[in-house]
Amino acid sequence: DAKTTQPPSMDCAEGRAANLPCNHSTISGNEYVYWYRQIHSQGPQYIIHGLKNNETNEMASLIITEDRKSSTLILPHATLRDTAVYYCIVRPRNTGNQFYFGTGTSLTVIP
Amino acid sequence: EAQVTQNPRYLITVTGKKLTVTCSQNMNHEYMSWYRQDPGLGLRQIYYSMNVEVTDKGDVPEGYKVSRKEKRNFPLILESPSPNQTSLYFCASSLSINAGNTIYFGEGSWLTVV
Q: CB pairs below 8 Å between A and B: how many?
C-alpha cells in the first residue's frame, strides 16, 4: 500500500540534469507534493514543494503532471554533493495528519 | 537561527533502562513529529503532535511515549527500551500540517540498545 513510488536508484553524470520521478496516484486535490533529500544519515533536507503548478527555486524544479498523479524533481546541473537519497512525500487521503516517507531514490552523481 | 535540536545525538543503553530523547524547536511551530529510520525501511513515523496537549500515533508507536506540555518541546520516551528499538531517530516540526508548510528536521539521534 505504497503512498508514493520511486525508483530505488539512479545515476547521473556530473554537470548534467538529474530527473527524479515519483508516482502518487492516490493524491487528493488539496495535498501537496514535497521533496526532501538525505545525505548519509543527516537530517532530511527540504528541497521544494508544490500543489498544482510547476515550481522552481535555487535548488531544483518540480514538475507536476496535470492529473497530479506523478511529479519529477529536476536538479539542473548535478554536482557530486547532490549524491543523496531523495524522498517524494505526499499527505495521503484519509490518513489523518501523517507524512509518509517511502524508501526514496538513491541518486549517485558520477564524476 | 531556525532549528530543531535533538539530544542526545548518540546513546548506548541497556535493555529496560528508561530513556528520554529531547526535541526542541525555536520556530513557534504547532506540529511536531518523531520518526525512526532503519536500513531498507526508510523513515517511519512514531508519534506526532498537532499542538500542545494533542498527540497521536503514527505507524510504529509501540514501545514509545511522547508528551507535548509546551509548544517548543516534544520528548520521546522509551519506558523499557529493547534491542529492536536500536535505530536512528529524527524529530521534525512544521508551522502546521494543513498547508504547504516546510517540515524541518533535527540532525538525528543514534540509539543503540544492548
A: 56
